[in-house]
Amino acid sequence: MTILDPVATPTDTVTSIAHPLSSLSAEEFVRIRDLIAATPDFTPATRFAYVGLDEPHKLEVLAWQGGDGPLPERRVRVMLLDMATGRSTDNIVSLTSGVLVSTTVLDGSRGQLPVLLEEFEAIGAIVADDPRWVEALALRGCTPDDVVCVPLSAGYYDYPEEEGRRILRVLAFRQDHPADHPWAHPVDGLSAYVDVANREVTRLIDAALIPIPAESGNFDDPVVQGGPLTTLKPISITQPEGPSYSVDGEWVSWANWRFQVGFDTREGLVLRQLSFTDAGEERPIIYRASINEMLVPYADPSPVRFWQNYFDTGEYLFGRFTNSLALGCDCVGEIRYFDAVLADELGNPFTIENGICMHEEDFGTLWKHSDMFTGSNEVRRSRRLVISFFTTVGNYDYGFYWYLYLDGTIECEARLTGILFTSAYPGLDADGNDYPFASEVAPGLGGPYHQHLFSARLDMMIDGVSNAVDEVDVARVPMGAGNEHGNAFTKQVTRLTSEAASGRVADASVSRAWFISNTEKVNRMGRPTSYVLYPQEAPVLLADDASSIAKRAEFATKHLFVTKYDPAERYAAGDFVHQNPGGDGITRYIADDASVDGEDLVVWHTFGPTHFPRPEDWPVMPVDYAKFTLKPHGFFGRNPALNVPAPDAAPHCAPADHDHAGHGGHDHHGH
Questions:
Q1: How confident is the model at residue 473 (pLDDT cuts 50, 70, 90)?
Q2: Which 3 state secondary structure label does DSSP give 647?
Q3: How would you class 480 by CB atoms within 10 Å of its CB: exposed for 0-12, middle for 13-18, buried for 19 or more?
Q4: DSSP code of residue 207
Q5: Strands 445-448, 423-424: parallel, antiparallel or unpaired by DSSP?
Q6: Residue 289: φ, ψ to 5°
Q7: How would you label 420-438 residue by residue, b for 16+ Cβ within 10 Å and e otherwise?
Q8: Which long-range contacts does 240-244 make (Cβ < 8 Å, 24+ apart)?
Q9: What angle do CA 530, 276, 559 make, to 5 degrees?
Q10: How many CA atoms lie within 13 A of 222 on its CB side?
Q11: How far apart are CA 451 and CA 608, in angstroms?
Q12: Can you count the helices (H) and strands (E) in the chain?
């Protein structure tokens, strides 16, 4: 890498903004484009691979909010790729002063810039110009016009001809007509490795002639769908008095919660400064929360598929593929939408209308008790605030839903749907056994085994910036002195004191959870105020520890890592994931083994399903779910939802008057 000196350019400075963490506006994107275009190295072939807010240090923001510091400088990170030369740079621009603060020239040895849409679009013509590709398709009864080419991130396999070059790997799918979903017809046994900048096929892998599955997968064809289900009646969700939340720009208040909604082209939805008002005090819980990375490793070791490992955030920037959500289809009820404003590859702003959806949901019983001694019989309804977005990355569609509950609980749920990435199913072996690395989901059509491993970056702030993490396991107590009848069990608490020792794996057999506490503040019982991270137990990365993907994605080998806050440590797999050989991200962040006891902490949590595809997942997959939960544990002095009123419209939920006469009746009016 090469660091260049700051460059001043003749551009206007940006007027003051409401908050240093406010999302970049269309006007700011235009200023960024113009500032970059005025620099000496900008050419007509320069493309904007990434443009996003370079967030100021947390302490600077908190000092400004508290009136103890100046407004932090407004900086933007801009990654640029020259499509003609391959020159890649990582730049910092100051919108406050109108200066290009720094430029780092990347040589590709530690990864490449994210894949551009323009590169995707070029692939079909590049491979069609290679006679070897055309001949291989002809052997399978196809021409280049019969297939769609799917360009995919290359990973890193130490091929000499790929060093320093931007490589994509290509698989083909036959498309029988313009409305035909090509995923049903994989042209298997064939793959091309492509140098996009030089428009060259560096390797052609023609491993086997495998029949192309014939049956269509056109899930949107009424003939395929069958007759409509006619017994479902409408469900209407209304809030006659409007929603309970209030919105001021990007800031949201709901019940006792307050937070900022943000958006990034790489991470998608970002929630900042989540706080809960308790007895009149606004208490911080999380400074910043996002899905910073998403890894999809495939299990098929075949010659044309062993490299299938996708980082949908770091390699593809999945935020830019966010869906424009539709009322009644994606979101129901009283909806508040937020637009997402991003920059395209020419640096021009564009808007994804209704990119973020926010609404309230009834969530059943919040708390309830019928008391045998007092006759008290009370129940309260739970509800949650939902903040969500959906993004489509090739074949898969992912929804990410953040839930805030009245009792202080926080959940993040990933929803997975879309279309399987398919293969041709090899059939049974000589002994009649199934192929061990894929399911047959339709005649001759395979669904390779794979995982979806999401990395949540949780910049914690439990009652302040002095936090610690304890691992808590259930522990059995042997029968003996003090446990003469053998009924006892207790807990085992282990403080995670340093970064290098913080890599931990969930364990359902001991109900493992991680307590994140403030080391300087206590509750009314004199114990640290804390939240608990409850993981959803599922396998971590299943690839061999010596594999390329394990080196590139150490974050995915554990469910938990804890690091000391550093504003430069944003991504679990590192800044430049595409073709990165490994050793970045979490691997580098924990190398100095800094203390994480009583420090400003970031919790990195990996979660997600391992998928053995089913026939029922084809031709379009019903939603699958993965989530984690953060619950208060001693953060409050008692149940914080005691004051939730019984709904006025449901008299049977009103507080009991303790008159026991008539308790034998059950009047269900109003349900």
A1: very high
A2: coil
A3: exposed
A4: -
A5: antiparallel
A6: -135, 135
A7: bbbbbbbeeeeeeeebebb
A8: 242/334, 243/334, 243/336, 243/359, 243/360, 244/360
A9: 45
A10: 3
A11: 7
A12: 7, 34
SS3 291: strand
Residue 649, pLDDT above cutoff 70: no
Q: What pLDDT score was predicted for residue 474?
A: 98
Q: Which of 643, 670, 649, 641 is nearest to 241 (CA)?
A: 649
Cα torsion 534, 539, 540, 542 to 10°: value is: 180
What pLDDT shows up at residue 530? 98
Between CA 669 and CA 671 the distance in angstroms is: 6
In the block, tokens 């009583």 appear at 598
The kind and range of the H/E element at 166 are none
Chain-centroid distance, C-alpha 579: 20
Contact assessment for residue 535 and residue 607, using Cβ atoms and an 8 Å cutoff: yes
Instruction: Determine the length of the chain.
Output: 671
How far apart CA 235 and CA 25 sit, in angstroms, is: 38
Place of tokens 């409509």: 228
Contact in structure between 390 and 610 (CB atoms under 8 Å): no
Interacting residues of 291 by C-beta distance below 8 A, sequence separation 6+: 267, 268, 269, 313, 400, 412, 414, 454, 455, 456, 457
Instruction: Please give the positions annotated as active site.
Output: 312, 396
Q: What is the pLDDT of residue 329?
A: 87
Q: What's the CA gap between 58 and 44, in Å, rounded?
A: 37
* Radius of gyration of the chain, Cα coordinates, nearest whole angstrom: 27
DSSP code of 313?
T
455 Cβ neighbours under 8 A, 6+ residues apart: 291, 292, 293, 294, 295, 555, 556, 572, 573, 604, 605, 606
- pLDDT the model gives residue 62: 98
552/585 Cα distance (integer angstroms): 9
Residues 18-46 pLDDT 10s: 799 999 999 999 999 999 999 999 999 99
Q: Greatest CA span in the chain, whole angstroms?
A: 90
Cβ atoms within 10 Å of 201's Cβ, excluding its own: 17
